[in-house]
Design a protein that fits this description.
Elements lengths: L9 H22 L4 E7 L4 E3 L13 E7 L5 E8 L2 E2 L15 E3 L11 E3 L8 E7 L6 E10 L17 E8 L2 E11 L4 E5 L9 E7 L2 E10 L3 E9 L4 E9 L9 H26 L8 H24 L1
Parallel strand pairs: 1-9
Antiparallel strand pairs: 2-7, 3-4, 3-8, 4-5, 6-7, 8-9, 10-11, 11-14, 12-15, 13-14, 15-16
The structure holds 2-acetamido-2-deoxy-beta-D-glucopyranose (2 copies).
The site of one 2-acetamido-2-deoxy-beta-D-glucopyranose (NAG) has 8 residues, from loops.
């Protein structure tokens, strides 16, 4: 008798209690379709929404109904299968959002698998779906959340509220470089703005945001010091919208720091260029007949002179 205990120890009661809680939890989650299952899919990819009966009973002759919960427009009919009769073989009633895009897995029905595939997932497909077996005893409903992950692209015209192309302005030459300003005028969703160079590096910049009448006005300034294509990129992640504007900033290397040396050098360049141009004109008007390669060489030298001259003048103007 010494091996028997009539009353459980506190630890044993705790274990029993936890086990009971867990089985109740299991039972509940079973009835509610094991919570909300989340499915993530990229925009334009196909989404498989899973729904299976644990009993694996053959669904061939049964009824199951997929609906999407909407906020405003209530529930939308996504897919209904009734003993072989469904939206892809003549049955009416499917919501137009899903027309021609939803199919079931015929070969899986005998395994109790009522999963569906939605082709070419769109933003609007995101949300909570229910998979319902209304004729089962007891009836069963499963919830599945579909999350369509947006790819960033220019969605102007596709959806309302997209930010228009930003404006780029070149401001002052400062000690830090040439100041570029990017401006967004009136975005209804707060945008994220960044300046980047042609290699995609994000540039340090200074942002100012103001809000007027529910619209966001943002300016972003950055100082640049190198010749490059600079892009101002505006992103509205919530709606997958991205738009940018680009500007090319040329920096001409300074030939001379000292202006007087500059002029002297300029004089030489001009003189040489004049000679070269005259030569070129003579060649062109055939006053001098060029019959061999040295002529081409001369033309080449002429163009180099003219080029240098142009660069020099652009630099000092
Ligand atoms: C149901 O069928 C789909 C499509 O073939 C499959 O991806 C899924 O894994 C199946 N589910 C179960 C529980 O077998
Ligand atoms: C340019 O710089 C000067 C002096 O640094 C300043 O007074 C002026 O407001 C600046 N202009 C712009 C457009 O930022």
């Amino acid at each position: 008798m010494s091996g028997f205990k009539l009353l459980p120890t506190p630890l044993e009661s705790l274990v029993v209690f936890v086990c009971m809680l867990m089985s109740v939890g299991n039972l509940l989650s079973h009835q509610h379709g094991s919570g909300v299952n989340k499915v993530f899919v990229k925009e334009h990819d196909d989404a498989v929404l899973p729904c299976s009966l644990s009993t694996r009973e053959n669904l061939g002759g049964m009824l199951f109904d997929w609906r999407k919960n909407g906020q405003k427009d209530g529930q939308k009919e996504v897919f209904l299968y009734d003993a072989g009769n469904h939206y892809n073989n003549g049955r009416q009633g499917q919501d137009k959002q899903f027309k021609g895009r939803v199919s079931h897995f015929q070969g899986q029905l005998m395994n109790g698998n009522a999963s569906i595939k939605i082709q070419n997932a769109k933003m609007a497909d995101s949300g909570i779906y229910s998979c319902d077996f209304p004729k089962l005893q007891p009836s069963q409903t499963f919830s599945i959340e579909l999350v369509v992950e947006l790819t960033l692209k220019d969605r102007s015209g596709e959806i309302p509220g997209t930010c228009p192309e930003p404006y780029i302005k070149t401001l002052n030459d400062t000690k830090d470089g040439l100041l570029l300003q990017c401006e967004v005028r009136g975005a209804s969703l707060e945008p994220k703005i960044r300046w980047q160079d042609s290699a995609g590096n994000i540039l340090p910049s200074e942002e100012k945001v103001s809000e007027r009448g529910g619209l966001y006005y943002v300016t972003l300034k950055t100082a640049v010091t190198k010749t490059d294509h600079y892009r101002c990129v505006v992103t509205q992640e919530d709606i997958g919208h991205q738009i940018d504007a680009e500007t090319f900033v040329p920096f001409y290397e300074k030939l001379c720091e000292d202006r007087s040396v500059g002029w002297l050098f300029g004089g030489i360049v001009i003189g040489a260029a004049v000679v070269a141009v005259v030569l070129a004109l003579l060649v062109a008007t055939k006053c001098i007949t060029v019959t061999c390669d040295p002529g081409k060489l001369m033309l080449c030298i002429v163009s180099i002179y003219i080029n240098t001259l142009f660069r020099y003048y652009r630099n000092i103007v």
